[in-house]
Structures are given as C-alpha cells and as structure tokens.
C-alpha cells in the first residue's frame, strides 16, 4: 500500500493523532532515532526527510542524539535534526539508562549537554537507571540544569554561541551557568539529608 516504511509510519501516526483529537502531547519515535542509525546522515536520510514532510506538525518526534546513549548533545547537531524533521525534537535522554547492561549504574551529575540547549528542544525525557534509589542524583541535577537553562533563556547569549561553557563543565553558579560539579555537591548534600531522615523514622 505504501511506497516506503516512513510513509507508512507517518500515515498511521497521523491517523491515530487525528482520531485522538490532536492531543497537545503526542510523541512519535522514528526508526532512525539517532545519528548513528541514519543513512548516511540525519540531513541526508530519505527516511527522516519523509517523516519530516509527511508527519503532521503537531506530532513531537523523539531523538536520542548522536548515539542511542549520547555522552554529549550540542546545539549544532540539534539544528541539523530540526531542519530535516521540520520541528524541534523531543530528546529521549539515555545518559543514565542501564536496562541494556545491569552492571552499569551511572551516579554522576547530569552533564555533557551544551548550555542553551533547551531553546533547540520541544521537550526532554530522561530515561533513568532501573534501580529506583540510584536516580536521586540524576533527577536532582537534571532539575538544577533545567533551572540554569530557564535562566539562560531569560538572558540569551548576544553572540549566539556556545562559548559560555564547555559541554561537561559550566563556569559555575557565579555567572548563572550550569556546573555539573556544583550540582553534584548540592545533590549529595540533599541525598544524605534524605537518607538520614529516613533512617531516623520508625522502622528506618
């Protein structure tokens, strides 16, 4: 019936979206959901070009970055994806995901995401560790990163560059940018306080 997989997927997704009354949040995960799965690249992918053309504009498209588990996300890469999808992507962030390797648990701060990234996103989903308690620092530091992003949106960089901070290390709280190390220290203090509170409760 359809000349390509992309056209089939877009047609079905569009029909479901319309049948549900075009909800404000409706997400579509493409078969090529990161750069490493695209042939030959996101901007040159016939599949993504078709998805961008055929998918109704109110449907959000999920993207994980350069890889399935992306250590870094940059605005430059997201601009390429936005251009081919004809919409800002919803990042499905697998930085902490360990469902593919239960020996791996990432307890570090949210990092590797360029400052000013939120302006290039339609949304962000964090895929957590499978172990519930191991997600305190990831969620806490994600909140700190998001607060810094809200602040940067209020005072955009006049040069329009990412030179304000490196992907892994912000300048720190003194200039309003995100510092993974400072975010980690705050999260650890709050986590210890939470553990102590639970320990002091009856049956703790």
Automatic annotation (TrEMBL):
SUPFAM superfamilies xrefs: (Trans)glycosidases (SSF51445)
Matches recorded under PROSITE patterns: GH84 (PS52009)
Pfam families attached to this UniProt entry: NAGidase
GO molecular function: beta-N-acetylglucosaminidase activity
Gene3D superfamilies for this protein: Glycosidases
Stored InterPro entries: GH, Glycosyl_Hydrolase_84, O-GlcNAcase_cat
Annotated region described as Disordered, given as residue ranges: 161-180
Start and end residues of each GH84 domain: 1-150
GO BP term, example: glycoprotein metabolic process
Protein name: OGA GlcNAcase
């Amino acid at each position: 019936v359809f000349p390509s997989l992309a056209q089939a997927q877009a047609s079905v997704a569009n029909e479901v979206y319309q049948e549900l009354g075009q909800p404000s949040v409706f997400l579509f995960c493409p078969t090529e959901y990161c750069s490493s799965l695209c042939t030959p690249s996101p901007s040159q992918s016939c599949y993504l070009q078709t998805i961008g053309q055929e998918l109704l504009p109110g449907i959000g498209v999920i993207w994980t970055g350069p890889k399935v588990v992306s250590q870094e996300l940059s605005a430059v890469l997201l601009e390429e994806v936005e251009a081919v999808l004809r919409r800002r992507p919803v990042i499905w962030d697998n930085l902490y995901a360990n469902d593919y390797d239960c020996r791996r648990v990432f307890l570090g701060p949210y990092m590797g995401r360029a400052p000013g990234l939120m302006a290039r996103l339609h949304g962000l989903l964090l895929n957590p560790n499978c172990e519930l308690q191991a997600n305190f620092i990831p969620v806490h530091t994600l909140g700190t990163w998001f607060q810094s992003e809200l602040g940067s949106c209020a005072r955009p960089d006049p040069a329009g560059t990412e030179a304000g901070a490196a992907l892994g290390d912000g300048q720190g709280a003194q200039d309003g940018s995100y510092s993974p190390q400072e975010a980690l220290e705050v999260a650890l203090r709050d986590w210890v306080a939470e553990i102590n509170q639970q320990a002091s409760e009856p049956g703790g």
